[in-house]
Amino acid sequence: MDQNPDSFPAPAGTERLSQADERMWAMCCHLASLAKYTAIPLANILGPLIIWQIKKGQSPLVDDQGREAVNFQISVTIYVLIGLLSLCIGIGFIVLPALGIFDLVFTIIAAVKANQGEMYRYPLTIRIV
User: For the CA atoms of 27, 72, 5, 50, what is the dihedral angle to 10 degrees?
Assistant: First the structure.
């Protein structure tokens, strides 16, 4: 499902980003989720959401990857909440570390793919936005 982001026109009234800037901002949408390692609640969602909202009108790639990053981080947050509930039956002790590794690995893969100009799709993502 690789699409060429150059085939989409920029929205009216906005200046299109250069290809290098477009790839850099798409990558930043994914890497902004690493803000979860700060003390800010839901920073894993807020980081990509802020970048996506600011830059989505300047690039179809940033719009696509920002939406994808936000959806993935919302999905991971839901999975973590389920993992926390599963601590009561003991399986959460396995699920939560696995989710942390899953999140980190696929965030890095997505950032690399976005920096290459590809429209990456995360696995197990609930498409909410």
Answer: -60
Per-residue model confidence as pLDDT tens digits over 38-69: 989 999 999 999 999 999 999 999 999 999 99
The whole-angstrom separation of Cα 35 and Cα 107 is 12
Structural domains of the chain, count: 1
In a domain, 7, yes or no: no
Dihedral of CA 14/63/22/35: which sign?
positive
Domain that holds residue 53: 17-115
Say if residue 3's pLDDT is above 80: no
Alpha carbon distance 58, 101 (integer Å): 32
For residue 128, the one-letter residue type is: I
